[in-house]
Design goal:
The protein has 353 residues and is α/β, with parallel strands linked by helices. It has 13 helices and eleven strands. The strands form two sheets. The protein has a seven-stranded mixed sheet with strand order 1-7-6-5-4-2-3, sandwiched between helices. A four-stranded antiparallel sheet has the order 8-9-11-10, covered by helices on one side. The protein is globular. It starts with 11 loop residues before the first helix and ends with a helix. The model has no long low-confidence stretch (mean pLDDT 96). Bound molecules: pyridoxal-5'-phosphate.
Amino acid sequence: MLNYELKTMFELSKIVRDNIKSLKPYSSARDEYKGKDGIFLDANENSLSKGYNRYPDPLQLKLKEKISTLKNIPSENIFLGNGSDEAIDILFRTFCEPGIDNVIICPPTYGMYEVSANINNVNVIKVPLTSEQFQLDTETVLRRININTKLIFICCPNNPTGNGVKWNDIKLILENFTGIVVVDEAYIDFANYNSLISKLSAYPNLVLLQTFSKAWGMAGLRVGMAFASAEIISLFNKIKSPYNINAVSQEIVLKALERKDEVVGFIEIIKTEREKLRTELSTLSFVAKVYPSEANFLLVKTTDAKSIYDFLVSKQIIVRDRSKIELCEGCLRITIGTKEENELLLKTLKQYK
Ligand SMILES: *Cc1c(COP(=O)(O)O)cnc(C)c1O
């Protein structure tokens, strides 16, 4: 159990939707009988077939045990989703009453928060990050909170700007908000500061998101993590579809966790390449600015984003055009590739105009 040192005004039962509080979850065959051995005639599976004929563990306990050791947090504080996108959707379904409640996001930021809000018919209050520094405007965030505000999304390091936001600002929001503060740490492995995992015990209203899609290189498997109080994790488990992580993904991630050193190597290379690319890109005449990055991509302000984007596409190099987004005018977001890919990108860009 995590021990909460600090008593905020936060009371979980006050912000959970009533239908979720009273929800009796679906109980699968694998929930009702947890033994490993026996003749299984309880789930209408095909016993004649071998391999993947059995439903996977609904709570992914083996996998969580490994993640628990890696992240130094008890299994009961871990939720696994079909990508962190599933966790984002479940946050809305747990806390936000459609048509009534609202959430705060701080653009420019990850697009899924707003899409997930729209799908769930939840209002979005936008409090933009400060220009250029892309930090939280905490004063406005706190001022815009109303009685129907249930979630505040903070992305750190932020996508698409690449920077981290200040812990003191996050702390101020955590301590002055009776709803949930979601800190999305999808890119934390590339950052020069630590995850907020160690802060979970002090803040019962903190939910952290991480993923196997970025540093771990397993975007195709769709496995994301949420870390929070055991009470919040239980709610997520009640709501999720029974077998949300398939057996193959569970197996492969489990194996990957045994090759942790490989990931440390990836991160090292990507960070080195990032700084090299940042320096090189800055020398190009049509590059106005390369923003500092704590992630595996660079936000690059150019003089003519659309035409550079089109030029790169014509050379079969695809980057992300973020120039239509407020505060990102003229910007392209470029993911750090292999050394060879990055060199080819630079060589190609030098041919522009
Ligand atoms: C890529 C990304 C994710 C990852 O989503 P998955 O569903 O786990 O692949 C989450 N948050 C942010 C900010 C991202 O950029």
